[in-house]
Amino acid sequence: MLATLSDRTASIVFVLVTLGVSLGTAGLAGGLILAFSPLLVVLVMLLVVTREGYGRAGWRRLGTGRLGLRFWPLTIAATAGVSLLATAGVVTFGFARFAAPQQPWLPDVLALCVAGPILAFAEEIGWRGYLQPRLAFLGERAAMLTVGVVWIGWHLPYILFTPHYHSDGNRALVLTLFCGSVIAFSFLIGYLRTLSASVWPAVLAHFAHNATFAALTIPIATERPVLVNEYLSGDTGLFVLLGTAACAAAIGVSRARANRLPVPVSGRG
Question: Which of 3, 15, 96, 169 could disulfide-link 222, Cβ–Cβ 3.0 to 4.6 Å?
């Protein structure tokens, strides 16, 4: 339909459609349509709107053509590792303790291992696969910040209009921590996407974070679940926010220093 659509226009259309789907489907099927909406909108953009998907270049730009294996250890350390440290933190400070699970946990873990990668892919193919490269005209950091703001907006209907996600605790504090964490994750995962030239480290980062913080609730007992799970060590708690921001900043500083290094001039002979 619009094969000559510019990156600027394509990104605007993608954002508007994705946010519209989020707003319209947050309360349907437990949010399942919303969860898959980034992937669905990517398919619509590539196959219907711009028709880039009828050539290899359109799919190659999503970053699916290489695994980026060299960056997987860093990805796991900066996501699963941060969640582990956050949980260790709440135990160390006495807000929680390790305890034997009080209910069967294996089915939940197996379901997480099956559904988790699929849902992570459905999101990341939209945020870091399709949108981030098309926002390159803004500059690297501005593109990551913009993706983060869109990511927040996409979540908000699910948080505000349903009881399924971040429904406990003080709403203002929870939303503040959530927004800060999402921006931090947007920079962290955005750097991994750029460094690896692959969307797969982004998918792994998304899944590793979700799986680790969820799994760590199994061996933890606390008399203050809102404090621990919402404010400190949960999905977007303070400890996770600080750890993720530190990892993103470290990668950003390292990347900036590498870019400033002089290029060696090879001699003749």
Answer: 96
